[in-house]
């Protein structure tokens, strides 16, 4: 009987020890998982802050490279405004229309409803360019004539 009790006590003791051992390992595994999660979070935060820093540097570089381009655009806009004021409104319209036609021809774009092969040819481009230059010259002469007339009217009054 005593042997049975000892055997039972040993059996229970082994179970308890194995239970503690398993639970201890589980606690260790849970702690490792928790540590891994914390490490992953720290790594993600580090990568995020690094990406933000890189983004700031990229934006700064873009801004510094964009400034000369914006200055160039501003100068171009001022020049266009200056020359637009020099040409009378009546003379601007033919220039715009023929210029857009020349652009369509020169770059090979077809107008709506036209076949590209038939529409685009070097001969048509040359004709459009000659027409555009002639209209531009005529518009300039009209503008100069109008300017002279307006000056003469100012002198007469």
Automatic annotation (TrEMBL):
Compositionally biased region (Basic and acidic residues): 27-56
Stretch list, region Disordered: 23-56
Record-linked Pfam families: NPIP
InterPro entries tied to this protein: NPIP (IPR009443), NPIP_N (IPR054697)
Nuclear pore complex interacting protein N-terminal domain location: 1-144
Coiled-coil region: none
Family (UniProt): Belongs to the NPIP family.
Official protein name in the record: Nuclear pore complex interacting protein N-terminal domain-containing protein
